[in-house]
């Protein structure tokens, strides 16, 4: 019985969502299959290491709601989605997040390296569709904006980490 439980538990942890695209990660992976959408496939490059987990978050495209707490947004009935996956051991990961309808959104990538449920400027990484250097100030909505059509919108996000007095920047130049 214990052996059956272990086999079942192992199968559940590695199983991909039904009809998921090979190589695309996250609970919404099926939304990035050909002919599906609307969804965003975010290709992540420049990871510092293979620790922790990767998060992709979708916010409304307005200053008042950008980076607001998920519980606050949900309590107010506003859009918020999050896809969370363990950091894969190799390769440039692609994460998929579905969107409710075509339009403009704010997309945030986070590399949660320390395993805590709060962003740490000292260890965690972040990135946005614009790939502009984040520096030392709070990210701007314009850095995170993305237009999504009726299909799958593909974007590449370069991860950035604290790089001394200059603030956040990519590991590779």
List the helices and strands and how they pair.
Elements: H1 2-14, E1 24-25, E2 39-45, E3 53-60, H2 70-75, E4 81-86, E5 94-98, E6 103-112, E7 125-127, H3 141-144, E8 145-148, E9 152-158, E10 160-162, E11 168-170
Parallel strand pairs: 1-5, 2-9
Antiparallel strand pairs: 2-5, 3-4, 3-6, 6-7, 6-8, 10-11
Can you walk me through this structure?
- This protein is mainly β and 173 residues long.
- The protein has one domain.
- The protein is built from three helices and eleven strands; from the N terminus they run H-E-E-E-H-E-E-E-E-H-E-E-E-E.
- The chain has helices at residues 2-14, 70-75, 141-144; strands spanning 24-25, 39-45, 53-60, 81-86, 94-98, 103-112, 125-127, 145-148, 152-158, 160-162, 168-170.
- The strands form three sheets. Strands 3, 4, 6, 7 and 8 form a five-stranded antiparallel beta sheet that branches. A four-stranded mixed beta sheet has the order 1-5-2-9, with no helix packed on it.
- A hairpin with a 5-residue loop joins strand 10 (160-162) and strand 11.
- The longest helix is centred in the N-terminal third of the chain and has 13 residues, at 2-14.
- The N and C termini lie far apart (53 Å).
